[in-house]
């Protein structure tokens, strides 16, 4: 399995480095992904999803240590939240930085998830840049929980489909979303 993951990482890296969009299994649901620092690739994700640019996308990181590259002030409580919540958690932070404008909301916030999934973590680490993740559906349609539920319209528009976990059903669901403020106060937006 490890060799299979490595082969898929290398194929996905080639696409990501060329500004392409991949369809890939994440630590939650199947996602559309691209280099989070490539404006054109991000715009392509918006086009594929038919999503208004006013609705932000999630940024994936491989480690807690990389958060300070993209958030001006990481509240102390974040490390505890990430380390102690078992399921995937996306946190909305104030004062986003070093990210393209089409990833930062009009209020200056950004949604970031530190992934625990081996494939995603290794892919981000080898890319050396964060990834975008957005559910593999047209905006407003139901989120596919397994690969077989992904619309052919989505599959036809991506540059590469990762060949892992196509037949796997792992009780996938969207991540918990927590809004955290610079002072450390937080609220759960989606559980």
Please give a handful of descriptors for the protein shown:
about 190 residues, alpha/beta, DHBP synthase, 9-stranded mixed β-sheet, 5 helices
What does this structure look like?
This protein is α/β, with parallel strands linked by helices and 191 residues long. The protein has a single domain, classed as DHBP synthase (Alpha-Beta Complex), CATH 3.90.870.10. Helices cover 27% and strands 20% of the residues. It contains five helices and nine strands; from the N terminus they run H-E-E-H-E-H-E-E-H-E-H-E-E-E. Strands 7-1-2-6-3-5-4-8-9 form a nine-stranded mixed sheet, with helices on both faces. Helix 1 packs across helix 4. The longest helix has 16 residues. The protein is globular, with a radius of gyration of 16 Å. The protein starts with a helix and ends with a strand. The mean pLDDT is 89.
List the helices and strands and how they pair.
Elements: H1 2-17, E1 22-25, E2 30-33, H2 39-49, E3 58-61, H3 77-84, E4 89-93, E5 110-114, H4 118-127, E6 131-135, H5 152-157, E7 160-161, E8 176-180, E9 186-190
Parallel strand pairs: 1-7, 3-5, 4-8
Antiparallel strand pairs: 1-2, 2-6, 3-6, 4-5, 8-9
Helix pairs in contact: 1-4
- CATH H-level homologous superfamily name: DHBP synthase
Which fold name fills CATH's third level, the topology?
Answer: DHBP synthase
Overall morphology: globular
Do you know the CATH architecture? Alpha-Beta Complex
Helix content: 25-40%
Low-confidence stretches: none
Question: Strand share of the residues?
Answer: 15-25%
Helix/strand-derived category reads alpha/beta
Sketch the topology as an H/E string, one letter per element: HEEHEHEEHEHEEE
Give me the side-by-side strand order of the main sheet.
Answer: 7-1-2-6-3-5-4-8-9
Biggest pleated sheet: 9 strands, mixed
Give the overall pLDDT as a whole number: 89
What is the CA-CA span between the terminal residues?
32 Å
CATH class: Alpha Beta
The domain count comes to 1
The radius of gyration over CA amounts to: 16 Å
